[in-house]
User: Fold this.
Amino acid sequence: MTAPDTPLAVLDRTWYALQQMDAKIHNHTSQFEKVLQAILDTKTSLETKIDAVTQDVNLLRADHGKLSERVAETETDVAGMRPTMKERLYSLFGE
Assistant:
């Protein structure tokens, strides 16, 4: 028969088990902090990239607006030239 555990032996084993659990918790916490930091870094990087793309889109929209205005002006200019060109051709070659 084995001797029953003394309270001190039980306390020693419990203390040892608690220290092992504490080490595991510390290890997992450290790993979690690293993963969390990587997530935060990725979030910051994505926000920066999104801001840059948003600025590019806004510039493209502004350029598109300017080009649309220029196309409208050119169409108006061309429409205004047609009768003049027609008159010139008639004056050169007759009807």
Q: What stands out?
A: DSSP finds one helix and no strands in the chain.
